[in-house]
Write a structure and sequence with these properties.
315 residues; two-stranded antiparallel sheet; 1% strand; flat
Length: 315
């Protein structure tokens, strides 16, 4: 098992190294003059151009620039934000907590609602619970995030002033109060996917021979469902890890709709203002987060399925 973990971690580090090359190359191969982008609306003079090229080492060969940038990333130096006039690490660090809290709350709501509802939907297939869950799943999959956000704002912030309209609040409880509507907005789409996956996986397990055998031997139904859920856990974990990666795109829309000062709005503003250092760092951060999520999903396989551990031990 230790060898498998080492292989997984080494594979993740290799993917991150390749992704760092792709991210760096995308910025430097993008259309347009990088110097003009960095200068923005400031006067263009030969001295200013020379100063910019010297400051960002643009006259060095591209591999030298890449390894200098990679060395800075590994030591926590992500460069300076042109728009914010501060270090990129500080700009990201000041907003990271809010985005993590939003993603965590949305993911927790999606799991807490979708998995039990998906189980009951499979157990009572064809019943009113199943039909209601299917309807909710269709709504969650088809409704755009920004439309759901605007609807929730109108109902629960304007018509029924229960939640605040915008902002992040002050203090843990006030921030949590401000994050409820954005989290529910994100959780609706995520929960719909997890609900569908849970229902499908549970239906397959409940129709398996071992479940019929367990029921014939008089094992309590609750115990049978627990065993079926455990065997259905791998596809559910796989689906949950995949939808977690989609939180990144959804977070940008949710933070924009609710005017939350998180990483989503930082990325949006940085793209609009062509703040390349921030865009570069956030893109790599997102790629690293997705790679880590995939690694955690692989580790979950090892914990949930003894067959995967046995296969890895004999490999």
């Amino acid at each position: 098992m230790g060898r498998m973990l080492a292989v997984r971690v080494l594979g993740t580090l290799t993917i991150l190294f390749v992704l760092s090359i792709v991210v760096f190359s995308m910025v430097h191969l993008a259309p347009g003059d990088l110097v003009k982008t960095l200068l923005g609306n400031r006067p263009v003079s030969p001295e200013a151009v020379a100063a910019i090229r010297a400051q960002y080492h643009l006259d060095d060969p591209l591999p030298v620039q890449y390894f200098r940038w990679l060395g800075g990333v590994l030591t926590g130096d992500l460069g300076e934000s042109i728009r914010l006039q501060t270090s990129v690490a500080d700009a990201i660090g000041s907003r990271l907590g809010l985005t993590l809290a939003l993603c965590g709350l949305a993911f927790a709501i999606a799991l807490a609602v979708a998995i039990p509802l998906g189980m009951r939907s499979a157990v009572h297939a064809g019943g009113w619970v199943d039909r209601t869950a299917s309807a909710l799943g269709v709504v969650g999959l088809s409704a755009p995030t920004f439309a759901v956000g605007l609807l929730l704002l109108y109902v629960f912030a304007y018509y029924l002033p229960i939640f605040p309209v915008y902002g992040a609040g002050r203090g843990p409880l006030d921030t949590l109060h401000h994050l409820v509507l954005p989290a529910v907005t994100l959780a609706l789409g995520l929960g719909a996917i997890i609900l569908k996956l849970t229902r499908t996986a549970m239906l397959r397990e409940l129709d398996a021979d071992y479940v019929t055998s367990a029921r014939a031997r008089g094992i309590p139904e609750r115990r049978v469902r627990t065993i079926a859920l455990r065997n259905a856990a791998i596809p559910i974990v796989t689906g949950a890890s995949l939808v977690l990666t989609f939180l990144v795109g959804g977070t940008v829309l949710a933070e924009t709709t609710y005017a939350l000062p998180g990483l989503g709005t930082l990325l949006q503003d940085s793209v609009l203002f062509k703040d390349l250092a921030v865009v570069q760092a956030l893109t790599l951060l997102v790629a690293a987060a997705i790679a880590v999520i995939a690694l955690l999903a692989d580790l979950a396989y090892l914990l949930l399925d003894p067959r995967v551990r046995a296969k890895g031990a004999t490999a």
